[in-house]
Amino acid sequence: MLIPEIVFLNPPELTKKLRNFYYSSFNSETLETILGFIEQNMNASKTSKALYMHRNTLNYRLDNFINKTEIDVRTFKGALAIYLLFKR
Question: What does residue 42 show for φ and ψ, rounded to 5 degrees?
Answer without folding.
Answer: 55, 35
